[in-house]
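Quick log. Single chain, no ligands specified.
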Amino acid sequence: MSIKIRYFASLKDAVGRSEDILEYSPGLNAQQLWQVSNPNTQLPDNILVAINMDYVPLSTLVEDGDEVAFFPPVTGG
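-> predicted structure:
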């Protein structure tokens, strides 16, 4: 199967697309998934990641069929 990766806000602009579909590779965590899908774009600091709509640490392993979303840090005022 595959993993769906979604990029939001400024990250979408940084990578030049809103989503990717990657073939599942066992043993990848969310941070490694970013590196595989964006080899020429460094993962920004303070990034937020959600797997299947739940916020998780970047060290969380990705499973077959997951949807992984990357968000820039949220600020408000």
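Residues 9 and 77 are 18 Å apart (CA to CA).
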